[in-house]
Structure formats: structure tokens, C-alpha cells
Amino acid sequence: MLENPLYSIRMRAAEGGPHEQGGRHISGGERLARESEVQLLVAELLTKSMGHSRGNADFIQVVVEKMPYAEVYVPPLPVATEGGHQVDVCRAKALNLLVESGVSRAAAELGLNELQQSEDLRGAIIMDAVTGTRLDKREQKGVRVSRMDWDASSHEEWVKIHVPLGSLRVREALALATKVAYSPYTLAELCWSDDPDYVTGYVASDKLGYRRIPHLKKLGESTGGRVFFVQPGLDVDEYIHYLEKTPIWIGWEGGRP
Ligand code: WAQ
Ligand code: MG
Q1: Cα 228 from chain centroid?
Q2: How far is the CA of 72 from the CAs of 69, 105, 215, in angstroms?
Q3: Which residue has the least CA distance to atom 16 on ligand 1?
Q4: For 20-48, how does the pLDDT look when each residue is reduced to its tens digit (9 = 90+)?
Q5: Where do the H-state alpha helices sit in 101-235?
Q6: 43-54: pLDDT as tens digits
Q7: Ligand 1 proximal residues by C-beta, below 6 Å
Q8: Centre of ligand 1 from the C-alpha of residue 1, in Å
Q9: Is the pLDDT of residue 1 over 50?
Q10: Taking the CB of residue 232, how many other CB atoms lie within 10 A of it?
């Protein structure tokens, strides 16, 4: 590990000043890099933040940190794509998948409502899977999962057998969903993008895998975000620490399944 250190790279971008001074969230991103890849990945994150469909960022922050940790490899969740073109049909499907994953119907409905109302959520909402109570106290900031990334050769292999899913967006979403589902405290995740030009979202869980749902909102809307439904009674600080700090490689050590 010492000869080949790991770096965490995190980006956040806002319009109208920094987030903490009231700027509107435009984009964020988190990657892991070997030393030789740091410059390239910083450039990729800058590209992601500029020319974004949510607006023109005038505040962009990139943080690069050397990581003192051992490495853990987690294989990606299996992926399936559901049918359905109407938003209400797709939302009903998401609700059912959440309930099948062990979330109460009441909490699942509250989660869907939260995302329907969020236009400027920067991270995820942590929600009690039984009562639907919000457990993090982060408001618009939410909890940002970081320190996860695909192992590059594992991703190459994965794309060969999932040819239409080669985009950076799916790459990032599946890495995040896999890290979140890997925690024993997560029952399920609900996500759709806050980008007005992207309407596909997903429900993910250890039980059901990553289930893509084609129309969780109407084209042109800037609502969206993420809800992590968790076991009641968990230690919330410990859970947030795992999400923010524990480095996870998605893939297979050595590159092959
Ligand atoms: N940690 C926690 N929450 C996050 C993170 C993160 N690292 N990144 C994004 N979010 C939250 C935040 O509230 C964003 O506003 C919201 O999720 C949406 O982020 O076709 O593109 O990056 O299989 O816009 C899913 C479907 C796409 C992909 C999701 O999300 C597919 C997407 P975006
Ligand atoms: Mg977005």
C-alpha cells in the first residue's frame, strides 16, 4: 500500500457562490485514483462540472486526499432494467421494489415524496425504513457518499457484457449503489437524477440488485436526489462514517469476476 498509495478526489460545483453561502447545487463527483491517474481524474471531474444541464457553475471545488487505508473489493450489484413509460406507473414500480426490499409502504411513500420535492439536494437523505423519519441532520447538504470507484479493468470487463450501460453516469451510479447496499444497515436505496435531461432512476438493494426504472420524473424537471432506507436503531454516525470515509473498489481484485 505504501508504494502504491490511493487518492480520494472529490468535486462539488454550485451557481451563485459556494453551497454554504446559498449557491444552487450544480454537480458533484467522487473518484479514487492511483498516483499516476490523479491529474486525469481531476480533469474529468472539472469537465463534469462545467457545461452542466443544471446551470453554469461559478464555484467549483476539487479536493485531493491521500488515503491511509487498506483496500476492499466489492463486486457490482446485478443490473436489470424495468419497463414502463408513464411516471406514475414507474413510481408505483419503485414503491413495490422498495417494499419488496423490506421498506414499509409508509416510509417508501415518504421517500418518493421527498425526492419529488427536492430541487437542490446535494447528497442523500437517510431515512428510517419503518417510520420514514429522516435520521441525518444535514438538510439540503445531505450525506455525500465518497471514496468509492470502479477498479478500471473490472469496469472494462463489465462494460463488455453490459454494452448499452457504458456511460460515466451509470458507472458512477452503480458504484455508489453497490457501496451503499454493501452496508448491512441499508435495506434499499431510491434515486433519480436532479439533472433536467435525465429521467431514468433506480431502486437498489442487496436483495434485488440495481433495478433501473426508465421514467421516474418528467423530462425538464430539476427534482431528484437519493434516499437510503436503513434499519431502525442503527448508529447513524457510524453509518455516515462508512458512507463518507471507507474506501471501496467496485469490481474484482485482479480485474476479473
Ligand atoms: N452521495 C450521496 N448522494 C449523492 C451523491 C453521492 N456521492 N451523488 C449524487 N447524490 C444525490 C444528490 O442529491 C444529487 O442531487 C442526486 O443524488 C442525483 O445525482 O441509467 O445521475 O449524479 O442506470 O444527478 C441514476 C440512473 C442516475 C443511472 C443518477 O444522479 C442509470 C444520477 P446525479
Ligand atoms: Mg445531478
Answers
A1: 10
A2: 9, 34, 34
A3: 225
A4: 999 999 999 999 999 999 999 999 999 99
A5: 105-117, 152-161, 168-182
A6: 999 999 998 999
A7: 28, 30, 121-124, 142, 144-146, 169-170, 173, 176, 191, 193-195, 198, 200-202, 212, 224-226
A8: 30
A9: no
A10: 14
Residue 5 has pLDDT above 90, yes or no: no
Indicate which residue's Cα is closest to atom 32 of ligand 1. Answer: 193
Based on the number of CB atoms within 10 Å of its own CB, is 1 exposed (0-12), middle (13-18) or buried (19 or more)? exposed
pLDDT digits (tens, 9 = 90+) for 176-220: 999 999 999 999 999 999 999 999 999 999 999 999 999 999 999
**pLDDT of 86 higher than 50:** yes
Q: Which ligand is nearest the CA of 122, by number?
A: 1
The domain ranges of the chain are 6-67, 73-250
| Coil, strand or helix at 193 | coil
Q: 48 near 28, Cβ under 8 Å?
A: no
Spell out the residues 6+ positions from residue 80 whose beta carbon is closer than 8 angstroms to its own: 209, 210, 211, 212
Which residue CA neighbors atom 24 of ligand 1 most closely? 193
CA-to-CA dists, residue 173 to 1, 39, 88, 135, 227, angstroms = 27, 22, 23, 23, 13
Residue identified by cell 446551470 is 55
Q: What is the mean pLDDT of the chain?
A: 95
Cell 478526489, residue located: 9
CA distance 195 to 191: 12
Output the pTM of the full model.
Answer: 0.96
144, pLDDT greater than 80: yes
Q: Which atom of ligand 1 is nearest to the CA of 169?
A: 21
Q: Return the percentage of the chain with pLDDT > 70, whole number.
A: 98
CA 70, CA 253: separation in Å to the nearest integer? Answer: 13
